[in-house]
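Kindly inspect this one:
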Amino acid sequence: MRRIALVTLVVDDYDEAIRFYTEALGFRLVEDAPRPDGSRWVVVRPGLRQAGADLLLARANGETQRSRVGDQTGGRVGFFLHTDDFARDHARMLAAGVTFLEEPRHESYGSVAVFQDLYGNRWDLLQPATDLQPATD
């Protein structure tokens, strides 16, 4: 079986990125290991167990990478954070200072609102419609 295990997000600073993703978004720090070149291998996970891809926080190296921080997808929503309780996570993220770029919307595919991370990358907080339906036996 194959799956995408990690997605790289280029950041300005490891520690500020770790703080944002763990404190504001509620991710869990999975790994933070020094590398011989002075960089670090920093992995955060949105949930308690791996159900999708983890996020590799990679400090920008050089001007080309620094120019991509905060705009890795050209202004599009490039990251999708699924939740099983939109209202809970939206409220928690607002209280933690996360900037939402729109009010929550309830679409045929689910409840969604676009937010930006500390660098300006756009994300969807999304509770898919399949998770909005009460469980049936």
Observations:
- Residues 68 and 74 are 9 Å apart (CA to CA).
- The beta strands are 6-11, 28-34, 40-45, 54-59, 77-82, 99-100, 105-107, 110-116, 122-128.
- The radius of gyration is 16 Å.
- The chain has a mean pLDDT of 92.
